[in-house]
Design goal:
Blueprint: E1 6-15, E2 21-24, E3 30-33, E4 41-49, E5 54-63, H1 89-104, E6 128-134, H2 141-145, E7 155-160, E8 163-169, H3 180-193, E9 208-215, E10 221-227, H4 232-245, E11 249-256, E12 269-274, E13 278-282, E14 285-289, H5 299-313, E15 320-324, H6 330-335, E16 341-346, H7 349-361, E17 367-371, H8 374-377, H9 380-386, E18 391-394, H10 403-412, E19 416-421, H11 424-434, E20 438-446, E21 456-463
Parallel strand pairs: 3-5, 10-11, 15-16, 15-18, 16-17, 18-19
Antiparallel strand pairs: 1-2, 1-4, 2-3, 4-5, 6-7, 6-9, 7-8, 9-10, 11-12, 13-14, 19-21, 20-21
Length: 465
């Protein structure tokens, strides 16, 4: 079947993965397109054939959906983020609820899905952003068609979706509060004015590679600049001027990274000025956020999420609780006063050390944090050492839980399991195995990321008597 097909006057009917829109022809052909909103009537030309569907571009709008609004960001449609910014927020959450329903259809048709918990802050809700420097930024069609010479190609911003060597230069991002934009633009302007090189991903050269900005609800900012080359003179020049220009920066750090990818988890993070961490507070609990710490990126929704977890766990005060994939121990400490003891298990040592530190800071004595790969450490010997859990809380990464972990959970026959997931597909895959001994009692989605297709989901499971 040819990859190039033209379809006229078709309605966009749904939203698919990664924020794409779904069109179905009268012949049952499925086409995935970008920048469409359910209800739009469009013409489409396909450009690629996948196994069960086509990828296509919208060539003409015949009419616009009632769900459509004007996108706030000038970079919408080019930048890889906020792909639903042209859709009314109530419509966004409607399709996220449908995503959960579709994911759970193979488990049970009788699951009562609770209404999605919406986000009050539709913009400036993130507490962490990462930007990439580039020597050859993405040019707009207008710039390409213009005959202007000497267009500035250096930039810093986000990658275009699916094109990791293409970076859109971002002027104003609506995801993180000020002075996030000012910090990013300051570094860019200072580097250009002082002839400091930007990273070239193809030639593997250039000084400035990546900029991470983290902030907390206490208005503390952490800035981490990743340098590809180790030019101490220019590095100190940049960091010195950044430190003196922004009093909000409580932690200024940097990384030298000349490897293939820009992950810092196997790199040494060096402190230039301030503290090694910034402070965050959740429900009167204090936490220290370090450069490599995983922390939920929407703090206001995180508090709602943890309230759901605590409600589902229904603790009376005499329970042993296992918190699997515990990260910084935020959930463990959030529920600790309602439990007899909480055991957190986490693979990243830095996160465990931070969890122990914050537990001391918060004067919580009934939590314990253990380091280890979950599939290797969560065994019968571990259970013998720490005791049979009355409640298990699990919040795994996007890949879900390893089958060996699920097998061990099934052996335990724990009374209650609360399963938190940022990926309903892998969550459902795991639930299919768990339902051998467990009934699904409650399903509660919560929107952590407006204008994206991502949705968090919490499931309550009870052991079958």
């Amino acid at each position: 079947m040819s990859k190039n097909k033209v379809f006229h006057s078709l309605e966009i009917v749904d939203i698919g993965s990664k924020g794409q829109s779904i069109v179905k022809t009268n012949d049952g052909i499925v086409v995935m397109v970008t920048n469409g909103v359910p209800g739009d009537i469009v013409d489409i030309e396909t450009y690629r054939k996948k196994k069960n569907y086509f990828l296509g571009n919208i060539t003409k709008f015949h009419s616009y959906s009632k769900n459509r609004i004007e996108a706030k960001c000038e970079h919408f449609g080019t930048c890889g983020g906020c792909k639903w910014q042209n859709m009314m927020y109530d419509s966004q959450t409607h399709f996220k609820e449908n995503k959960i329903k579709y994911s759970f259809k193979n488990i049970s048709n009788n699951i009562e899905l609770q209404p999605i918990i919406k986000c009050n802050e539709l913009y400036y809700y993130r507490n962490k952003l990462e930007f990439s420097f580039t020597e050859n930024r993405w040019l707009t069609n207008k710039e390409i068609k213009s005959e202007v010479k000497g267009i500035e190609r250096r930039g810093i911003g986000f990658h275009i979706s699916g094109m990791w060597d293409k970076v859109v230069d971002i002027k104003n991002c609506h995801l993180q509060s000020d002075p996030s934009n000012k910090i990013r633009l300051f570094v860019k302007e200072f580097a250009i004015n002082n002839s400091i090189s930007f990273y070239n991903s193809k030639l593997k050269k250039g000084l400035l590679r990546n900029l991470m900005i983290r902030n907390s609800s206490l208005n503390e900012f952490m800035v981490i600049i990743q340098f590809f080359e180790n030019d101490s003179k220019k590095i100190n020049l940049i960091l010195h001027h950044l430190k003196n220009s922004f009093a909000e920066i409580k932690s200024l750090q940097y990384v030298i990274n000349n490897k293939q990818n820009d992950s810092i988890y196997d790199r040494e993070v060096k402190l230039f000025s301030g503290e090694k961490y910034i402070n965050e507070k959740i429900d009167n609990l204090d936490f220290k956020i370090y450069p490599k710490s995983f922390f939920q990126t929407n703090i206001n929704q995180t508090i709602k999420l943890y309230d759901i977890v605590k409600d589902f766990a229904n603790l009376k005060g005499d329970e042993i609780v296992y918190d699997l994939y515990s990260g910084l121990g935020t959930i463990s400490q959030f529920i600790a006063k309602k439990a007899k003891k909480v055991i957190g298990i986490e693979s990243i040592l830095e996160a465990v050390l931070s969890a122990r530190e914050s537990a001391i800071l918060n004067k919580i004595n009934n939590v314990e944090f253990v380091t280890g790969d979950m599939k290797n450490i969560f065994t019968s010997n571990f259970i013998s050492e720490y005791g049979d859990p009355d409640v298990i809380i699990t919040d795994p990464p996007r890949d879900g839980m390893h089958k060996d972990v699920i097998k061990e959970i099934l052996k335990l026959e724990t009374r209650i399991i609360v399963y938190v997931s940022c990926n309903p597909s892998t969550q459902c895959r795991d639930l299919v195995l768990l339902r051998e001994k467990y009934d699904l009692k409650k399903v509660q989605p919560i929107d952590m990321f407006p204008h994206t297709d991502h949705v968090e989901n919490v499931v309550l499971l009870e052991y079958k008597d």
